[in-house]
Amino acid sequence: MLKVEGITVCYGQIPALRNVSLTVEEGELVTLIGANGAGKTTTLRAISGLLPLASGRITFEGREIGNAAPRTVLALGVAHCPEGRRVFPHLTVRENLEMGAYLRRDHQAVAQDMERLFDRFPRLKERLNQPAGTMSGGEQQMLAIARALMSRPKIVLFDEPSLGLAPNLVERTFEIVSDIRREGTTVLMVEQNAYAALDMCDRAYLLESGQVMEQGTGQAMLANDHIQRAYLGG
Amino acid sequence: MTTRLLPWLFVLVMAVGPLWLGDQYILYVLTSTGIFIIGAMSLNLLLGYTGQLSLGHIAFFGIGAYTSALLSLGFDLDLGGVEPFVLGPQPVWVAFLGGILVAALFGFLIGKLAFRVRGAYFVIVTISFAQVMRMVALNWVDLTEGPMALNNIPPLSVWLPWDGVLPLYRKEYNYLLVLAVAVVCFLVIQRLVQSRVGRALVALRENESLARSVGIDVTRYLVVATVIAAGMAGAAGGLYTHYIRIVDPDVFMFIYTVTMVIMVVTGGKGTLAGPIVGGLAFGILPEVLREVARPEVQWIIYGVAMIVVVFFLPQGIVPAVKNWFAGRRKRVAGTALGLRKETSA
Amino acid sequence: MEAHLQHLLNAVVLGGTYALLGIGLTLIFGIMRVVNFTHGELYTFGAYMAYMLAGMMGLNFFMSLAMAALLGMALGALIEFTLLRPLKGADIDTTMLVMIGAGIAMQAGEQLVWGGVAKSVPSPFPTEPVVLGSVSVGMNRLFVLGVALLLLGGFYLLINRTKLGVAMRATFQDPDTAALMGVNRGLMYTLTFALGSGLAATAGALLGPIFVVTPTMGDLVALKAFAIVILGGLGNIPGATIGGFVLALAEEFGAGYLSSGYRDAMGFILIIAVLIVRPQGLFAMKERIG
Amino acid sequence: MSLAFDESAAPILEVREVAVHFSGLIAIASMSFAVPEGEIVSLIGPNGAGKTTAFNVITGFLKPTGGKVLFRGTDLTRLSSNRIAGLGVVRTFQRTSIFAGCTVFDNVLTGMHRQGRAETWGALLRLASVRAETERMRAAVAEILAFVGLSHRADELAGNLAYGEQRLLGIAIALAADPKLLLLDEPAAGLNPSETEAFMGVVQRIRDRGVTILLVEHDMRMVMTISDRVVVLNHGRIIAEGPPEVIRANPDVIQAYLGQGVKHAKG
Amino acid sequence: QETIKIGVTQPLTGAVAASGNYVANGARVAEEVVNANGGVLGKKIQLIIEDNKSNPKEAVASAEKLIVRDKVPVLMGAWSSTFTLAVMPKLVEYGVPMVVETSSSTKITTSGNPWVFRIAPTSAMEAKSFAEKLDHFQPAIQKADFLAVNNDFGRGSADEFRKMLQAKGVKIGVTETMAPEATDLSAQLSSIKQSGGDTLFVTTGVEQITLILKQAAELRLPHRVITNGGSSSPDQLIAQAGAAADGGYFTLFFAPWFPEKAVHPTVAKTFVDGWNKKGYDFAGLTEGYRGYDGIMTIVEAIKKAGKAEPQAIRDALWTVKLDGVNGDIAFKKDGPEGKESGQNEANVYVVQVKDGKVTMP
Ligand SMILES: Nc1ncnc2c1ncn2[C@@H]1O[C@H](COP(=O)(O)OP(=O)(O)OP(=O)(O)O)[C@@H](O)[C@H]1O
Ligand SMILES: Nc1ncnc2c1ncn2[C@@H]1O[C@H](COP(=O)(O)OP(=O)(O)OP(=O)(O)O)[C@@H](O)[C@H]1O
Ligand SMILES: [Mg+2]
Ligand SMILES: [Mg+2]
User: Fold this and answer.
1) What is D9-88+179-267's CATH topology?
2) d(CA E311, CA E96)
3) Interface pTM (ipTM) of the complex?
4) Per-residue model confidence as pLDDT tens digits over E187-221
5) CA E131 – CA E228 distance, rounded (Å)
6) What are the structural domain ranges in chain D?
7) 3.40.1570.10, 1.10.580.10, 3.40.190.10, 3.40.50.300: CATH of A26-50+67-232
8) Please, what is the Cα angle at C284 between C282 and C286, to 5 degrees?
9) pTM for this predicted structure
10) Neighbors of chain E with 3 or more C-beta pairs under 8 Å
11) Cβ < 6 A, ligand 1 pocket
């Protein structure tokens, strides 16, 4: 479904990704792990069109999307929940969610989706008219996740969705990820909570210094010595 | 080592070059540009280092100019008391220093105020302050003569052991004086920004709450910066007033602040040499343009030149030149490294 | 009493035009954070367009007004596209410098094209004022007030109640994330700048027949518009509206009862005073830290 | 690991009945707790419980609606945030906070502000003492960068660092300020388990240097491992307080915060 | 062939560009007329016109440039009093005379600058001439209010007229001022309406006069409006203020509708013809004459001096007796002894707009 083929991405002159390839099949949950600065975020940003490719190809459902505008990529069904929350600080919670459904025209369905998300994150409903920037870190993270789901994507790119969430909510978030998968949405997830991520995913990739070092099923990766030592603190 | 000597070489060339050329007109242009460069340097301290855009900076310049002019001419002030307050003409240097002090005092007030308002709000407060000052100069006719202007302002003077007191009517002297003041201001700013105080200012620019969280007394340093910047702008104003020898409320014109901003940003804000390079470029440009086109077209070229500079050198001229040199050095180093690799392989 | 009423009426009428200028700028300065030094020139541009269309070409006044607004938008779009777009990501001072350059060039261009001599736009309204008891006001001024109020209401709804308005605000708070939501960033930038410019041009075209049209007419106006935006809080349309009226009241009563020499200072004194008490402007919230 | 909470240790920080309201919204209803000198105390609680708000109150970024904060007997609620930092109470930010336009080195150097004495006049006259001080500080910066593991990034612009590195830099800056009491707001967010583990070592070493630490963190493995004591906040009220093993078993805390299947959470 | 250069500094851009350009145009007409008649001392004259950008600092820069770069032996300028005052130290520094064509501040000729020769009248002189015409006004002026632009020109004029009217037994109401760039004057006019006077004296440029007339009509101001300072152009006012201009009186130093009523009709006619030939705006004649008379004065002085040298021109300026568009031009001594400046006694005309036409009562 999503195919990244040998991409190189640079900030200025310096390459952050070198010849990275990965694939995500329809209905899969794939995670990306790696140390700080390995290039995980960069990979997701390149897929969703925020960064230009120096070389390589990205295709989604057979269509070339490397270097396409973020809007085009989203319209094809790729949603991106960015790192570090990135809610619109001066918009209210409701307006933030509306932004998530920006490209959608089916207003009634949008309203229903919003209600469903409120069931998952009741706090958001309590705070509908609060400017997002005044919410607590975790509340903002909930909002960011909910917002990404508002577009009814075919695939969601999550960049550290559990960041700053309390344990019970981390749990809830992973449940949601499982839920949406069950509903047929594909997921590509960057997660520092490597145990949980590897445990629940189908396949995983390990990035180191901008290159794919390992790949395999989640369980295989969990069992991998190197990964145990370097990333799981085992 | 060369980079340390470079500024002094520049000063030497500036001190000797124009005098050697002996062209009065060039001297005039350089002197009046130099005065504004001093203003721009002081603005850079705020804009470039603390990140506070003072779009009313000319107010300090004007206050310096008016104070210096009034002190040197003497004035009487009826404040509604029994006796009007009368002050006779003061020696020009006393007046000049007075101008600096009063400007610095206003800088203190504005700095205190800036404690409360930042960013766009600070911009507007400073604009408003300059406008109010202009209105005061315009309407307090008893003191400032309002729009009728203060004229016949004495020039600055020097005391020479063999000549006694010599009023500086000649351009050469005025030019050298402006140059000297500029050098002093440069040194003050340089030392300040390269110190702990300077880092505190930059911290304020970059991230105020973080700065406070590590114990930087943001208000205090902002006040220090504003006082110094205002004092320097006041000195520039004093130089101006004793050089042009008339001062009227137009000295508070917005376009003058804009001129300083242009000098700072095109030259490279937050760099020491920026205001000087930008100042020379955009101070001299209008004089060059005089010969080229009709007046309106001169302005158009001037405006377009600014846009062009930003487009091609968005950081300003000085950082662009620095990067170019750094890049070249890196390339040279890179090839050297490459060679070594080959030989070792 | 009569004098109070007359001053009040003057202030309300003037406040409408100030508010109009304020919301145009609050879009660009308040929302986009571009210190727009062409705002005054776009105002001037609108006035000259009204002069050209209604005065020289003899078009219907209301038609000319609409066309001047559209031309102002077009010019705004052009400025955004050629000058601001290539600078994407540059800081506020850098874009400001470009706008200063553009403003200087535009003003000189206006003088080159139209000459320095004042022009006047023919007005379709009778010169006879509307008399209300002891006070009176020009018909054309009432018209301006009416249009201003309509535009203020319309833009309030646009920015705060429509999807487009939300997207506009989102874009300038976080362009990258807005793009991830499917917003066409470029379009938003151009559109916002064009709308702000269109409002400035509309103000110019509306006021052209009341005042006279000169190349420097925008200078003072631009400064006041900045003041109004700040008074109301950045990006806040109701704030800018109220800011406009407050400024007009301060000027009118300051000039009427204190000293006319300080008339134009009143607004600025007011701003300093307001910002000392409420540093974030009259109608804005404080930011959260941490 | 150190012993459980020692009643006799004098509190370095005492929060007394602090309340914070935001126009109608009650962020903190009433909160009292103490931090004994030399310990690591964790403040945990669900999202939106008021932890960051408490930090904001302690460090003077927010004036509380009511209550007091005593640092070695001084009431902090009256002081400005920089004065509080001047007393040695230094915090990090939950939202990454660095001097983005400066190099990593300069970021930390700026953090050392409190340790410098050079003032305007000294700088203008370029006194020898000032120059010596600068040299000393530069050496200290290198040490701190090595301590948090950012030495190799010293000349990079801080804004260009990856997220996790920026978080580490934030801590380096706080350390540079020579804290007596260090308040860390979710320092491990964005670190993977190994990095977190290494970071726990860093925190413990900071404590061993005599710095008291108040920690807000959602990574329970870290909290439970290194804390001497845990304070649990929910809906702006303290619902439990005690050594980690007690808190871990507290049903209220499990219900409100930890959740049932702790297996997914880190640790 | 060599030419004789004459320097002109005027505001060609910026706030007061409109008037500055009119004056510059008048000077250009003079240049053509002189050169068409064979120039002076057998050479053609050549104007070098510099823009002083409506600001005093630039006024100095333009004077420096003209004197040092172009080596002109004589200057004309610099429109506003502040620009002129700013240039004056340069005249002493380089020893170059300047003919002042517009500025009205008394300071210019009283501050002891022997290189300044002003053909424009001071506000005091204008008030004095106006006093002679006071009886023409029916009904007589009982109580006067003032609205003046807040600069040397406006304030000076309001002061002098107030003094003069007071001496004539007219009651004085309020004096309001306005910023030069102000467009909304309703506050000031509302206060003036309150004062209950019958006549409003207005001193400012033509743009603001237009605004005042329009806004006075909107506020139903009962006053008769009289403008002074000579910087208005009734034609422009009729065109732009329409009916609102009706009934107003305007003091001028040249009334181009009635060249025959000028002191020297043929001179006035030559000027108007030259102006029209160049296709300049009729409305600009009331200001343009200043440039014309200024250059003519300079040319006359050069002729008398017999050489184009600053000192000689200055000495010759004292002996000039010229038929100007405004009237006779000759300089009297003004200012401290030994350092006197030259001041010309200018003529003043009052016209009235009636039924959309300019008339001379
Ligand atoms: N805007 C930028 N400019 C320059 N370099 C950048 C920029 N953003 C990231 N980098 C660099 O690119 C590399 C990869 O960064 P990236 O953000 O993709 O890492 P990451 O794997 O997501 O790390 P983390 O876990 O810390 O989020 C890092 O070395 C980082 O310093
Ligand atoms: N400036 C503000 N205006 C309005 N509400 C606010 C403001 N600041 C905080 N709040 C609210 O106060 C509550 C406490 O926020 P706080 O940031 O302290 O939570 P927290 O415990 O740090 O949560 P997290 O673990 O998610 O970071 C939240 O519900 C938040 O929405
Ligand atoms: Mg990342
Ligand atoms: Mg928090």
Assistant:
1) Rossmann fold (3.40.50)
2) 7
3) 0.87
4) 889 889 888 899 999 999 888 888 898 889 888 89
5) 12
6) 9-88+179-267, 97-178
7) 3.40.50.300
8) 120
9) 0.89
10) B, C
11) A 11, 16, 34, 36-42, 83; D 160-165, 190
